[in-house]
Design goal:
This protein is mainly β. Helices cover 14% and strands 55% of the residues. The chain contains 1 helix and 5 strands, in the order E-E-E-E-H-E. Strands 1, 2, 3, 4 and 5 form a 5-stranded antiparallel beta sheet that branches. A hairpin with a 5-residue loop joins strand 2 and strand 3. The radius of gyration is 14 Å and the shape is elongated. The N and C termini lie close together (11 Å).
Length: 73
């Protein structure tokens, strides 16, 4: 099993929507900086994130663009 831990800033406010069954789904992306090769230059990756149910509602209510977050999955 693989595990990833990302630390970055929200690139935009979370978008919360609901499925036909009433489950909440939050979509957002985070900007994660990394050093590129031996050049010493920093590069930014934008990672799409999807949260479901109660966690989606918490993300929608508490997160805003530019806020620093840690995502584990």
């Amino acid at each position: 099993m693989n595990k990833v831990i990302l630390v970055g800033r929200l690139a935009r406010d979370p978008e919360v929507r609901y499925t036909q069954n009433g489950k909440a789904v939050a979509s957002f992306s985070i900007a994660v900086n990394r050093f590129g090769g031996g050049q010493g230059q920093e590069q930014t990756d934008f990672i799409p994130i999807v949260a479901w149910e109660k966690l989606a509602e918490i993300c929608g209510n508490n997160l805003t663009k530019g806020r620093r977050v840690l995502v584990e999955g």
